[in-house]
Amino acid sequence: MYLSDGQDLWDEFVGESLQEYISAKNLDTNCVPLGNIFFASVNSFEELVKVVIANGNIISKVLKKAADENADPMQKKYLLNMHLSAYQQAPIPILEEVFDNVVAELEAKLC
Question: Global pTM?
Fold first, then answer.
Protein backbone atom coordinates (compact mmCIF):
# COMPACT_ATOMS: atom_id res chain seq x y z
CA MET A 1 0.00 0.00 0.00
CA TYR A 2 1.33 3.40 -0.95
CA LEU A 3 0.01 6.58 0.64
CA SER A 4 1.89 9.42 -0.93
CA ASP A 5 -0.24 12.14 0.60
CA GLY A 6 -3.53 12.87 2.32
CA GLN A 7 -5.36 12.93 -1.00
CA ASP A 8 -4.45 9.27 -1.54
CA LEU A 9 -5.77 8.39 1.92
CA TRP A 10 -8.98 10.31 1.27
CA ASP A 11 -9.58 8.86 -2.19
CA GLU A 12 -8.72 5.26 -1.32
CA PHE A 13 -9.94 4.74 2.23
CA VAL A 14 -11.76 7.42 4.21
CA GLY A 15 -13.37 10.00 1.95
CA GLU A 16 -16.59 8.22 1.15
CA SER A 17 -17.19 6.99 4.69
CA LEU A 18 -16.42 10.37 6.30
CA GLN A 19 -18.27 12.62 3.87
CA GLU A 20 -21.67 12.20 5.56
CA TYR A 21 -20.19 12.98 9.00
CA ILE A 22 -18.29 16.00 7.66
CA SER A 23 -21.39 17.36 5.95
CA ALA A 24 -23.58 16.83 9.04
CA LYS A 25 -21.08 18.69 11.24
CA ASN A 26 -20.53 21.38 8.59
CA LEU A 27 -16.75 20.90 8.86
CA ASP A 28 -14.30 22.68 6.58
CA THR A 29 -12.12 20.04 4.93
CA ASN A 30 -10.10 22.68 3.12
CA CYS A 31 -8.32 24.07 6.20
CA VAL A 32 -5.31 21.93 5.27
CA PRO A 33 -5.21 20.80 1.64
CA LEU A 34 -5.05 17.00 1.54
CA GLY A 35 -2.19 17.18 -0.95
CA ASN A 36 -0.13 18.98 1.70
CA ILE A 37 -0.30 16.07 4.14
CA PHE A 38 2.57 13.62 3.74
CA PHE A 39 3.15 10.22 5.29
CA ALA A 40 6.79 9.87 6.17
CA SER A 41 8.58 6.76 7.34
CA VAL A 42 11.50 7.10 9.73
CA ASN A 43 13.76 6.69 6.71
CA SER A 44 11.99 9.51 4.85
CA PHE A 45 12.23 11.76 7.90
CA GLU A 46 15.96 11.04 8.18
CA GLU A 47 16.37 11.89 4.49
CA LEU A 48 14.49 15.16 5.02
CA VAL A 49 16.86 16.03 7.89
CA LYS A 50 19.83 15.17 5.63
CA VAL A 51 18.43 17.51 2.96
CA VAL A 52 18.17 20.30 5.55
CA ILE A 53 21.72 19.70 6.81
CA ALA A 54 23.06 19.88 3.25
CA ASN A 55 20.92 22.74 1.95
CA GLY A 56 19.73 24.80 4.89
CA ASN A 57 16.18 25.02 6.17
CA ILE A 58 14.33 24.41 2.90
CA ILE A 59 11.63 22.12 4.32
CA SER A 60 8.75 24.29 3.10
CA LYS A 61 10.28 24.51 -0.39
CA VAL A 62 10.84 20.74 -0.53
CA LEU A 63 7.32 19.90 0.64
CA LYS A 64 5.72 22.50 -1.66
CA LYS A 65 7.57 21.02 -4.64
CA ALA A 66 6.52 17.50 -3.59
CA ALA A 67 2.87 18.61 -3.29
CA ASP A 68 3.02 20.31 -6.70
CA GLU A 69 4.55 17.21 -8.27
CA ASN A 70 1.99 14.91 -6.67
CA ALA A 71 -0.81 17.07 -8.08
CA ASP A 72 0.43 16.15 -11.58
CA PRO A 73 -0.20 12.46 -12.39
CA MET A 74 2.88 12.42 -14.64
CA GLN A 75 5.16 13.51 -11.76
CA LYS A 76 3.39 11.89 -8.78
CA LYS A 77 5.59 9.72 -6.61
CA TYR A 78 4.56 6.92 -4.26
CA LEU A 79 6.74 7.89 -1.31
CA LEU A 80 8.08 11.13 0.14
CA ASN A 81 11.68 9.91 -0.07
CA MET A 82 11.26 9.58 -3.84
CA HIS A 83 10.89 13.38 -3.91
CA LEU A 84 13.87 13.82 -1.58
CA SER A 85 16.28 11.93 -3.82
CA ALA A 86 16.45 15.02 -6.07
CA TYR A 87 18.23 16.99 -3.33
CA GLN A 88 21.79 16.90 -2.05
CA GLN A 89 21.93 15.17 1.33
CA ALA A 90 24.51 15.29 4.11
CA PRO A 91 25.08 12.81 6.94
CA ILE A 92 23.42 13.35 10.30
CA PRO A 93 26.43 13.64 12.62
CA ILE A 94 24.76 12.29 15.76
CA LEU A 95 23.50 9.21 13.91
CA GLU A 96 26.93 8.57 12.45
CA GLU A 97 28.47 8.86 15.93
CA VAL A 98 25.92 6.48 17.44
CA PHE A 99 26.40 3.99 14.62
CA ASP A 100 30.19 4.13 14.99
CA ASN A 101 29.89 3.54 18.74
CA VAL A 102 27.55 0.58 18.28
CA VAL A 103 29.87 -0.97 15.70
CA ALA A 104 32.87 -0.45 17.97
CA GLU A 105 31.06 -2.12 20.89
CA LEU A 106 30.04 -5.07 18.72
CA GLU A 107 33.54 -5.49 17.35
CA ALA A 108 34.97 -5.40 20.89
CA LYS A 109 32.58 -8.12 22.02
CA LEU A 110 33.32 -10.30 19.00
CA CYS A 111 37.09 -10.18 19.47
Answer: 0.78
